Known about the structure:
Low-confidence stretches: none
CATH topology of the largest domain: Rossmann fold
CATH class of the largest domain: Alpha Beta
Number of strands: 11
Bound molecules: S-adenosylmethionine
Helix content: 25-40%
Strand order of the largest sheet: 3-2-1-4-5-11-10
Strand content: 25-35%
Number of helices: 7
Order of helices and strands: HHHEHEHEEHEEEEEHEE
Radius of gyration: 18 Å
Structural class: alpha/beta
CATH superfamily of the largest domain: Vaccinia Virus protein VP39
Amino acid sequence: MRSQLWTEDHAHHYDERHGDRFDETVLGPTVRFLNELAAEAADGHGPQVLELAIGTGRVAVPLRRRGVAVAGIERSEPMVAKLREKVSADEIPVTVGDMSTATAPPPGPGGFHLVYLVYNTITNLLTQDAQVDCFVNAARHLRPGGNFVIENVVPDLRRLPPGQDAVPFDLSDDHVGFDTIDTVSQRLTSHHVRRFDGDAWTRSASEHRYVWPSELDLMARIAGMEPVVRVADWNGSPFDETSGSAVSVWRLLD
Ligand SMILES: C[S@@+](CC[C@H](N)C(=O)[O-])C[C@H]1O[C@@H](n2cnc3c(N)ncnc32)[C@H](O)[C@@H]1O
């Protein structure tokens, strides 16, 4: 299994259920960071940017509104349909396909100053091979000297006591969340029991392959890239042993 398919139901509720990620305190720094990096890589020319797993355009749409030319690759047609309620295919063209293999719309391979993949979505690829292929595909789309950016969670294995395979991460009025972790395959299942607006409780689960920052660096190297910087968040906070997430930037070698 390469990754789960995001259904019509996911797409319909995505923006509302991930509302915290649409907050200006999150999106503002995200878009600023990507915009500055793209402008720097384009060196005075109009930056061309590609988002892998573009979803409903949470990041791409505000970036486009800033005048940046953005294209996308996205596997779920329902997610693209939601994006299309916000912008046309002329404004943000998208290829429906797998981000580890698909070819982006023009300017296509070798044409982008910046490729990015945010919100832990590299973990939606469930094998190391698929994750490496994703780096190779990102590199294939970059101009020499262009940047690849990944925002990804740092695996929280310190919270997994010896002999157990489950870690709770939320116990609130409307949500119980816990991860089950297989430390051999690096596979993680995120379990949710929740109710929305007083509706009936529902249970769901998503499948991931967790990946270490150092492993991402190795994947970048395999794809012909070198590390530029790793920070803890889009505001550029220093990355250290307490960081729960990382924003990593690599550069495609000439
Ligand atoms: C957490 S959402 C992120 C969407 C968007 N990037 C954002 O930040 O809001 C994950 C997205 O990844 C897409 N996705 C998962 N696996 C994929 C794959 N192999 N190729 C392309 N898209 C994929 C899903 O369909 C979904 O739209």
